C-alpha cells in the first residue's frame, strides 16, 4: 500500500517538481523513491481481485500494465510537462511507435517532417504503410507544404524540433493549427529541446514524446521513453496498446530516471551554457564551413527558436571542410569528446550522422536533408568548458 506524498500544495517551480513531484511513499516512509521490482500483485481475496480487474477498486494488477515506481516517473513527468496523463515505455523509439500507432488505423494518413531520426522515418515511411496507413513527408520549416499535405483522412502530424541532426526549428504552434484544421493530432518529439527549454503542449501540440535515454537519464545508464497527452486519449487509445503489446518501462529503469530528473535542470543549464560558448568558437573557425546552433542569431529559424524555446539547448551541428575524410580525422583526434551515437549525456559525445544515425535513410534522402559527409553532431556534456575548447582546438589543428 502506498500513499501519495503530494498533499494539497501550491504550484511549484520546475526544479522543485523534479525533486518532489509525483512521489508516493510506502508505509515505511522512505526518503528516496521505492523500487518495486515485482511482476505482479496479490489480493486479500478473490472478490478483491475481481474488483481490481473490473475497475471498482483502483490499484495495480500487473507490471506490464503499470507499476508503483513507473507510475511515480509518469506522474513527475506529467507535472513537468503540464500534461494530464502519461505512459512510460521501454525506449524512446517505443514511445514514438506507441504515439503513432495509437493515433491511426487502416485508411488513415500521416504527415511528418522529413528531418527525422532514421528509425522514426522507418516507422513513417515503411512500417505504417504496411498496415494501410498512408504517409507524406514534408519540409518541416515550410508551412505551405504542411497545408498542402493534409487531407480529410489525415489523423496525425509528427515532427521533431529541433530536428536530428541539422537542428531545424519548426513552428510548433503553426503546425498545430494546421493539424487541428483537419481534426488531426500533432505529435512532437521534444528530445533535443528538453522539457526545460520547450513546452510543446502549451504551443498547441496534442502529444509529446521523449527518449528518456537522453537528457532525462543523462548519464548513459538505461533506456526509456514516455508519451504525454490528455487523459482521455491516453486511457482510451494508449493504455490498451500498452496493455496488449507490452512496451512498458521496467521499474528499475523508472527508478534510475527518477534520480535523473532530480538533476535535470542543473545538467541541462550547464550543458547549454557550454554549448553556446563552443558554438561561438566554432563559428569563427576557417575549417568549419557551417555551424548550426538554435541559440545563435544566425540560425536559419532564429525567430522561431526565440519564440518557442527558452534557450538553445545542448546540441550543435557543424560541417568540416573536406568531407568524410576530414570529419573522421577531426573526430578521431578528439580526446575528451567521445564517439557515440547517443546524446544528452554527462559526457560530451560526437557522431557522424551520414555513417551512423542517418546511414539507413540513403544518400538521396541525406542530400535532401543537407546531411553532408562533412557534418558532425556534437552533444555537449558537463566537462569544464575550457578543456572542451582545447580538445576541439586540438582536433582542428589535426586536420590543417
UniProtKB/TrEMBL annotation:
GO terms for cellular component: cytoplasm. The keyword Amino-acid biosynthesis applies. Its cofactor is pyridoxal 5'-phosphate. GO terms for biological process: 'de novo' L-methionine biosynthetic process; homocysteine biosynthetic process; transsulfuration. The keyword Amino-acid biosynthesis applies. It catalyses: O-succinyl-L-homoserine + hydrogen sulfide = L-homocysteine + succinate. It comes from the Bacteria. Keywords: Amino-acid biosynthesis, Methionine biosynthesis, Pyridoxal phosphate, Transferase. InterPro entries: Cys/Met-Metab_PyrdxlP-dep_enz (IPR000277), O-succ-hSer_sulfhydrylase (IPR006234), PyrdxlP-dep_Trfase (IPR015424), PyrdxlP-dep_Trfase_major (IPR015421), PyrdxlP-dep_Trfase_small (IPR015422). SUPFAM superfamilies: PLP-dependent transferases (SSF53383). Residues 1-30 are annotated as: Disordered. Its EC number is 2.5.1.-. NCBIfam families: O_suc_HS_sulf, PRK07504.1. HAMAP family: MetZ (MF_02056). PANTHER family: CYSTATHIONINE GAMMA-LYASE, TRANS-SULFURATION ENZYME FAMILY MEMBER. Catalyzes the formation of L-homocysteine from O-succinyl-L-homoserine (OSHS) and hydrogen sulfide. Belongs to the trans-sulfuration enzymes family. MetZ subfamily. Homotetramer. This is O-succinylhomoserine sulfhydrylase.
